[in-house]
Specification:
Layout: H1 2-35, H2 43-51, H3 57-69, H4 71-77, H5 81-91, H6 97-110, H7 115-127
């Protein structure tokens, strides 16, 4: 009788250790996935990344998505962020017209008061192409 009780206690302890091992391994993988999230650049860093000549259309599209997602934050950091972004993007050699129009439309939707300024920045950027 005592051996059955001892065996049951040993089995419960073994199951507890296995469950503890799974819990620890799951928490470690969650920490690793949190660390791999990309860092969001500030306004000046994003503009600097945008100026790089080696950018592909895909990387320019990714920068544009970031600019639209964090538009208000970037405008607080840099008063003319949207104007500089449009001018640099439209002057880039690897950009297409669809992306330029898309980002221009998004910026105009986010801040309608700057429509004329955005048009001037677009004209300026296209002049450098």
């Amino acid at each position: 009788m005592q051996s059955w009780i001892l065996l049951t206690i040993l089995l419960i302890c073994l199951l507890f250790l296995i469950a503890l091992g799974f819990a620890l391994s799951n928490s470690k993988t969650k920490k690793d996935s949190k660390d791999t999230q990309p860092k969001i650049p500030n306004a000046q860093e994003l503009l600097k990344l945008l100026k790089t000549e080696e950018n592909t259309l895909e990387s320019l599209h990714q920068y544009s998505k970031t600019a639209c997602a964090f538009y208000n934050r970037y405008m607080q950091e840099c008063n003319d962020f949207d104007l500089e972004f449009i001018a640099i993007l439209s002057a880039h050699k690897n950009v297409n017209a669809k992306l330029i129009l898309e980002i221009e439309r998004n910026f105009k939707t986010l801040n309608p008061a700057r429509k004329t300024l955005l048009d001037k920045a677009l004209t300026l950027g296209l002049g450098y192409r």
